[in-house]
Design brief:
heterodimer, A: 228 residues, alpha/beta, Rossmann fold, six-stranded mixed sheet, 7 helices, 33% helix, B: 404 residues, alpha+beta, 2 domains, six-stranded mixed β-barrel, 14 helices, 57% helix, 17% strand, elongated
Chain lengths: 228, 404
């Protein structure tokens, strides 16, 4: 079976003001279906850039990225949007929920862009919230929820369209230790249910929940790790 | 994304900022209301003018001695351009003519006991009442026999009656004009003011023969009022009467008419044309406020896009295409302007109704104005919404997501 992620000598350059940044320098990495990979590295190692490329939010300057066997480099912005919608779920450090919007509507957001009917959206979003133990909180605004609850809403949103791949960017960065462990348990559960998870973190104890650790330095993989 | 879903997303966003949404639409509300009110009021004024003109006699024409011609005519012709009772009789014999009234005017002091009042004295025939559709509310109008024998009788307008008699009974009383004494036989029903503010009830009407004999001397008439069978007869009647008068007064071919013949139609058409220009003018001035309103929407939408960069990034990260974002913001601004349009129509119709009640003008809220104002509001919404919406749609998803 085709690997879910295949990166082949990926380069990414961009300009920040006057400075030319060479964020990724010929990075290659393969992630198989069902893996739970933690990507680690010091700041400036290219973690975030890699995350944006994996998340189809950005395209590599050169190199090849196959997501689910589809070459991302040759896709139009609209096709990338569809890829994000169908194949990917994001979980961010800062939750990134829409303010003054109910948990239910936040979770249903990706389904709007899949062209699903309103009734179906509500049903799916309700089920996703329930699965993450948030039944009864459907009509709460993010501001009325704790950090852990907000991150669970975000995970429900990432899962609601049943994508095969979950991308998490420092998902516990804004949470206390106990809540962090709860969230990681959810990821472990999801992984056991067959989701592929790629998580960026700089905390070793959080990375320990993953099955494989990939170390980045200066825009390249220094240790691709081994599956535990 | 389906259009309906985009519509719902936009509605939600507007509902979350109710106060701001309302304030944003205020410009459009006022603009649409202004257009509708302006057009309704000018159209109402036009209808009033038309109605008044027609009440003056839709099928009436007025022959007047032309003052310009009079100045040009050499001596010896002084009687050639005078209208006389014989001219009136000749006009009466035309087939399409139903009523004729010679008219002579003067202004004199009317004295009754210790009260007096300076007013217009009109000499007319018994047809005067029919031609003007103006009848006494008390007493009678004078008869052809009164005219034939130049009886010293008169009929007065309501204003004169009020000035001279107050609450006393005027009919049967006598009054003095110049050196003659007249018996009041009727008081005309009140007609009110013209649009120009002239009091139509400030006059005394008497047989033109009496006026000529007692107050003016001579046989000259100022005008001849002519009623024809129908309004359609008017143009032909004008030609016939002109020809008739040229023959009677022996005007050589090529010489200008010494008389002018005017119909109410001419005047009405002129006034209606002027009011039409006013409608366009006032409507366009009001439309400017619609454009200003549109700029207001654009400003707020630009602020809204900046405020919601993060939201745009989140939507893009879960699969929103540039087109979806564009549609969402465009629908928001179109909803704002259309909402403003609907509220503006309600406000405009209310204001026009109120103004109509205050001015007594008939209300003419035209569907044309409503459609125009509403369409214009929608176009303004699209036009001024496009720039902010494009700005939102062109955001880079990564930049937008990172935005704090």
């Amino acid at each position: 079976m085709e690997a879910i992620i295949r990166l082949d000598s990926i380069h990414k350059r961009y300009r920040v003001g006057e400075v030319d940044v060479h964020a990724l320098r010929g990075l290659s990495l393969t992630i198989e279906r069902g893996e739970f990979v933690a990507i680690m590295g010091p700041s400036g190692s290219g973690k975030s850039t890699l995350m944006y490329i994996l998340g189809c939010l950005d395209r590599p300057t050169s190199g090849r990225y196959l997501l689910n066997g589809i070459d991302i480099g040759s896709r139009s912005p609209d096709e990338l949007a569809d890829m994000r919608n169908q194949y990917l779920g994001f979980v961010f450090q800062s939750f990134n929920l829409l303010p003054r919007t109910s948990a239910l509507e936040n979770v249903a957001l990706p389904l709007i862009y899949s062209g699903m009917s309103a009734a179906q959206r509500t049903q799916r979003a309700r089920a996703a919230l329930q699965q993450l133990g948030l039944a009864g909180r459907e009509h709460h605004y993010p501001s009325q929820l704790s950090g852990g609850q907000q991150q669970r809403v975000a995970i429900a949103r990432a899962m609601v369209n049943e994508p095969p791949l979950l991308l998490a960017d420092e998902p516990t960065g804004n949470l206390d230790d106990q809540t962090s462990r709860d969230i990681m348990d959810i990821f472990v559960d999801l992984n056991q249910q067959g989701k592929t998870i790629v998580m960026i973190t700089h905390e070793t104890d959080i990375a320990a929940y993953a099955k494989r650790m990939v170390m980045l330095r200066d825009g390249n993989v220094v240790d691709a790790g081994a599956v535990r | 994304m389906k259009l309906w879903a985009a519509f719902r997303v936009a509605m939600q966003a507007l509902r979350k900022n109710k106060g701001r949404s309302l304030l944003t639409t205020l410009g459009i509300i006022i603009g649409v209301a202004a257009v509708i009110t302006m057009v309704a009021l000018t159209q109402g004024a036009k209808a009033t003018i038309e109605a008044q003109m027609m009440s003056l006699g839709g099928s009436v024409l007025m022959v007047s001695s032309s003052p310009t011609a009079r100045g040009n005519v050499s001596e010896g012709a002084s009687s050639a351009d005078e209208l006389t009772a014989k001219d009136a009789a000749a006009i009466r014999s035309l087939q399409m003519v139903t009523h004729v009234s010679p008219l002579a005017n003067t202004t004199q002091r009317v004295i009754r006991g210790n009260r007096n009042w300076s007013t217009a004295i009109v000499g007319a025939s018994a047809d005067f009442a029919t031609i003007n559709d103006w009848w006494p509310e008390g007493g009678t109008f004078f008869t052809p026999a009164d005219v034939a024998s130049a009886e010293t009788v008169c009929v007065m307008g309501k204003t004169v009656a009020n000035q001279l008699f107050g609450h006393q009974r005027a009919i049967g009383a006598t009054l003095r004009i110049g050196r003659s004494t007249f018996r009041v036989i009727g008081v005309l029903s009140p007609k009110g003011q013209t649009l120009g503010g002239k009091d139509q009830d400030d006059l005394v009407v008497m047989p033109y023969t009496t006026l000529q004999k007692r107050l003016l001397g001579g046989s000259r008439l100022d005008n001849i009022a002519v009623a024809v069978r129908t309004q359609q007869d008017l143009p032909l009647a004008v030609d016939y009467i002109a020809q008739l008068l040229r023959e009677r007064h022996q005007i050589r071919p090529g010489m200008p008419d010494p008389f002018s013949i005017k119909t109410q139609l001419d005047l009405t058409q002129k006034i209606v044309a002027i009011v039409g220009i006013m409608t366009v003018l006032l409507g366009s001035i009001a439309s400017i406020s619609l454009i200003v309103g549109g700029i207001g929407i654009m400003n707020i939408m630009l602020v809204s896009v900046t405020e919601r960069i993060k939201e745009i990034g989140i939507r893009m990260s879960v699969g929103a295409k540039a087109r979806d974002i564009l549609l969402q913001f465009l629908i928001e601004s179109v909803l704002l302007s259309l909402g403003g349009g609907v509220m503006g129509i309600v406000l405009g119709v209310s204001v026009a109704t109120l103004a109509s009640a205050l001015t007594q003008w008939p209300l003419r809220v035209s569907w044309g104005a409503i459609t125009l104002a509403f369409t214009f509001a929608a176009v303004v919404g699209i036009f001024f919404g496009l720039y902010p919406a494009r700005k939102a749609a062109r955001l880079d998803p990564i930049q937008a997501l990172r935005y704090e």
